[in-house]
């Protein structure tokens, strides 16, 4: 009988199962008495690895100790080794700390004298945001009245969320996921430090960029406008002087030319021939 259970007869033959392992009591009886002996039966079988003891999906956190445990059943007790497939099946070092390079697919193998079993495990590594970078488009120095945008990027798992510390201005618009900020019609209020913060459940990191709003173009335009006004006044004065000078010279020339003509004699008359001449006085040079 097995463990005090049902009594069986010796000489029975059937396929062995794992459940057959246990303590058996053998009792021999005849008319002169009884002999009893106990027997421990062990059933050996090849290894196996199931989901509860060896999950196929793992989540590690950067900076924590490496721990890749995979339980296997089998008799004799299997020996389990795990290696990353991309690393040429080099065993995982349990003395190291987790890095992002540990992410990937691993293969665990359980082996005993009856056989072996394989199981693949996918490991994801979570980490706090790293290397926040900011890009200003088209550049970090913009002309007044033009538009620009500041984009923020950071690696992290879970994907980070973004926050901003900005110069206070009304012409700001945030992009999808708060990953960028756009400025329409840059003004003096938009110059200053733009700081982006990326965070997840493992930490945060910030980055900054300085934006300059260049007003020299307006100053140049204003200067050119002033120069233009002064130039226009100068040209008008010069033009007037030129016209006056030329007119005087032309008038003097005409009068002098007329002095010796027959018409010049009429200049002193009140009426001369067909027309009248008024108030023209010829002077001696």
Automatic annotation (TrEMBL):
Keywords in alphabetical order: Membrane, Transmembrane, Transmembrane helix
Annotated GO MF terms: integrin binding
Protein name: ICAM5 protein
Organism of origin: Probosciger aterrimus (Palm cockatoo)
Ig-like domain sequence ranges: 47-124, 129-212
Cellular component GO terms, alphabetical: plasma membrane
Family annotation (Gene3D superfamilies): Immunoglobulins
Family matches, as SUPFAM superfamilies: Immunoglobulin (SSF48726)
Source organism, top-level taxon: Eukaryota
Pfam families, alphabetized: Ig_3
Name of encoding gene: Icam5_0
Residue stretches spanning the membrane: 218-243
GO biological process: cell adhesion
């Amino acid at each position: 009988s097995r463990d005090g259970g049902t009594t069986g007869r010796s000489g029975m033959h059937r396929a062995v199962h794992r459940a057959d392992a246990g303590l058996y009591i053998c009792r021999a009886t005849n008319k002169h008495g009884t002999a009893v002996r106990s027997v421990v039966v062990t059933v050996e079988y090849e290894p196996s690895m199931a989901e509860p003891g060896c999950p196929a999906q793992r989540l590690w956190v950067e900076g924590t100790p490496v721990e890749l445990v995979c339980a296997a059943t089998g008799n004799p007790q299997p020996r389990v080794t795990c290696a990353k497939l991309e690393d040429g099946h080099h065993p995982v070092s349990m003395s190291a700390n987790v890095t992002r390079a540990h992410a990937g697919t691993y293969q665990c193998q359980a082996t005993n004298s009856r056989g072996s079993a394989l199981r693949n495990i996918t490991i994801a590594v979570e980490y706090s945001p790293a290397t926040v970078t900011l890009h200003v488009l088209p550049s970090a120095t913009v002309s007044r009245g033009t538009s620009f945008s500041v984009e923020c990027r950071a690696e992290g798992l879970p994907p980070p969320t973004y926050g901003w510390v900005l110069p206070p201005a009304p012409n700001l618009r945030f992009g999808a996921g708060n990953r960028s900020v756009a400025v329409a019609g840059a003004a003096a209020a938009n110059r200053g430090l733009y700081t982006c913060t990326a965070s997840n459940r493992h930490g945060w990191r910030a980055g900054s960029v300085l934006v300059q709003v260049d007003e020299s173009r307006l100053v140049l335009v204003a200067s050119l406008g002033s120069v233009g006004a002064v130039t226009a006044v100068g040209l008008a004065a010069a033009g007037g002087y030129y016209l006056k000078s030329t007119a005087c010279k032309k008038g003097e020339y005409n009068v002098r030319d007329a002095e010796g003509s027959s018409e010049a004699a009429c200049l002193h008359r009140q009426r001369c021939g067909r027309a009248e001449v008024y108030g023209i006085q010829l002077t001696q040079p």
